[in-house]
Amino acid sequence: MSSIDEIRDARIKKLELLKKRGHEAYPAESKRELSLKEAAESFDELEKNKEVKWIAGRIMSIRGQGAIVFITLNDGTGTFQGLLKKDIIGDEKFDFFNEVFDIGDFIEIQGTFFTTKRGEKTLEVADWRMLSKSLRPLPEKWHGLVDIEERFRKRYLDILMNMELKELFIKKAKFWDATREFMKAKGFLEVETPTLETTTGGAEATPFKTHHNDYDLDVYLRISIGELWQKRLMAAGFPKTFEIGKAYRNEGTSPEHMQEFTNMEFYAAYTDYNDGMKLVRELYIDIAKKVFGTTKFTSKGYTFDLGDVWIKIDYAEEILKQTGIDIHKANEKEMEKKLKELAVEYDGDNKERLMDTLWKYCRKNISGPAFLINHPTLVAPLAKKNPDGKTVQRFQPMFAGSEVGNGYSELNDPIDQRERFEVQQKMIDKGDTEAMMADFEFVEMLEYGMPPCCGFGFGERMFAILVDKPLRETQLFPLMKPKQE
């Protein structure tokens, strides 16, 4: 078997031969008149009228027998077969084709359409032209790229050789299309908010920090899809807004966590979290039907139906049921002791982090669909309190042992918001890198007045769970460390 370097050297010689014979190896223009999908769909008419057309694509296979060569092209819209016959295109063009073309090259061919004896739609080639000479061989057809790192690093080859993977990303595009269509149909205005912020808001996560040279100012990449900005729009008089965009969190990687990901957030004035739960259930079912044609899924060993009744699970009651810990009464030491008994690793010794870790232990036993409600006030600094004063009006859709969204009756009391920001700032001062930064300009906006509203966000984690794959597998180009030469 030849090495990559030997194959590359041989192909470079073919490239030089093309140039020597006066052929462009990388022309800017193409004569293509039909996509391969169009050629297949209009084949009967093309064959009947003996039309002469140019089609183009990447050569995925070459099969030769003496004076004939069959090639299979792929242009991203479909595949199509071409037939080169020496007695049709002449000795010189036929032989030159065999001298310079390889699997992986992009070519355009001109000819007439016919059906082979085996019933295959085919273009009988009268002329050909190189569009792009490949210098490296494609992966072996039946095995493709096997090494995981190589697959992510050379995603273009991974997708090219794996039709199922290509369909996954087409489905993901439909996932966001369905989301956008639903929101607009409900009267939401699509907006764009800043991705660079002087304080990050809307979530508890460690941000990425960078520097703005012109202002000589440190700024952060956003960790939410404009939560505090969209709430400013509620105060500005926009009744319903949403945004689909990128968020960035400088945290660990897991099957459900990435540092860069796509989320959607919406905000609706004069609504609360009960309204939000109704809308979100409708949204999720709509997405499932439009993208997958079903509401029933199996993922991570769980089976659930989004069309079922969504039960409501109380945060503290579920932890008490599963661990015996009453988070409203237990202190930090009692929580740490229980986590050690459960052999659960935890990071941070403040009450918020410990409660969150206990919950993460419990959630894996919930298949859903469900709404998690009545979170402690400490873990939701932007949500409106319940009458008990200990919990907030927050909801999180759940299925397959994971939260797949987050929403609140948004806090619009400026005095309460200031106090909660001050608590978060004290946590930051003690070294908690995930605590929420205080944004007192946002508090100033609240002092002018913001209507009651519900806000909600969800992201591509939901898509990954519905297709039962790790989040990294559902991203086109996940971040990779530079390749070591």
Automatic annotation (TrEMBL):
A GO cellular component annotated for this chain's UniProt record is:
cytosol
Q: Which segments constitute the Aminoacyl-transfer RNA synthetases class-II family profile domain? A: 178-482
Tell me one GO molecular function of this protein: metal ion binding
Q: Is Magnesium one of the keywords UniProt gives this record?
A: yes
Q: Does the keyword Signal apply?
A: no
Transmembrane region positions?
Answer: none
InterPro entries per UniProt: Aa-tRNA-synt_II, aa-tRNA-synth_II, aa-tRNA-synth_II/BPL/LPL, Lys-tRNA-ligase_II, Lys-tRNA-ligase_II_N, Lys-tRNA-synth_II_C, NA-bd_OB-fold, NA-bd_OB_tRNA
Coiled coil residues, start to end = 325-352
The entry's protein name is: Lysine--tRNA ligase
Instruction: Supply the source organism for this entry.
Output: Candidatus Nomurabacteria bacterium RIFCSPHIGHO2_01_FULL_40_12
